[in-house]
Amino acid sequence: MGAATKQEIEAAIAGLPSELRGTVSRWFEKLGTEYPGSRPADTVVENLTRLVACSDFAAATLLREWSWFVEMQDSIDDVPETDALLRRVAEIKHSVVDIDVVKRELRRFRHRYLLQVLWREIRGIATLGETLTSLSDLADRLLDTAAEYAGRLLQERYGVVRDDSGRCAAIVPHHAVALLQQAPRVFGGRIQ
């Protein structure tokens, strides 16, 4: 797989609506400034152009995570791996690093994961069900991770949380979680 030439990038930009061409051209200029000599693979340039045109979030994330994207170009079309999601959140959940590091790592992981979901959407290779499942899985795992990490920090600082009868209590009451799981989801039918 070769790097896209300037002509291939310009041709991909020319295929966009005229209102978006300037923004996408500036994005590619910024990419060249921040990562001199680095260009997307010729096989991804058209979809990359469309993704940058469609999403300011994706454009900004791509600039921040360009090295990751370059490494992922061969597998960016793959469905985001649930196992990788579970491994990563488990690492973060059980880490002993500062809360600011945990927040940064969760954000970074979320952005990369969302970028892969958006990529598959832009390419037209993801079904609606797959996209909703990927987004729901991500949200569920990140919420679980943040709650467990925060609960551990609170326990270390203040001790075990107890209910009125003196039994250990969860930070998020189990009945609240059960209610959420039974609530209808706007698009997917239920919270998993």
Q: What is the β-strand count?
A: 0
Structural shape: elongated
Strand content: under 5%
**What's the structural domain tally?**
2
CA-atom Rg in angstroms: 21 Å
Describe the structure.
It is built from nine helices and no strands. The two termini are 40 Å apart. 19% of the residues are buried. Helix 3 crosses helix 4 (56-64), helix 6 packs antiparallel against helix 7 (99-123) and helix 7 runs antiparallel to helix 8. 67% of the residues lie in helices and 0% in strands.
Question: SSE layout and pairings?
Answer:
Blueprint: H1 6-14, H2 18-34, H3 45-54, H4 56-64, H5 66-72, H6 82-93, H7 99-123, H8 128-158, H9 174-182
Short description:
67% of the residues lie in helices and 0% in strands. It is mainly alpha-helical and 192 residues long. The protein folds into 2 domains: 67 residues; 80 residues.
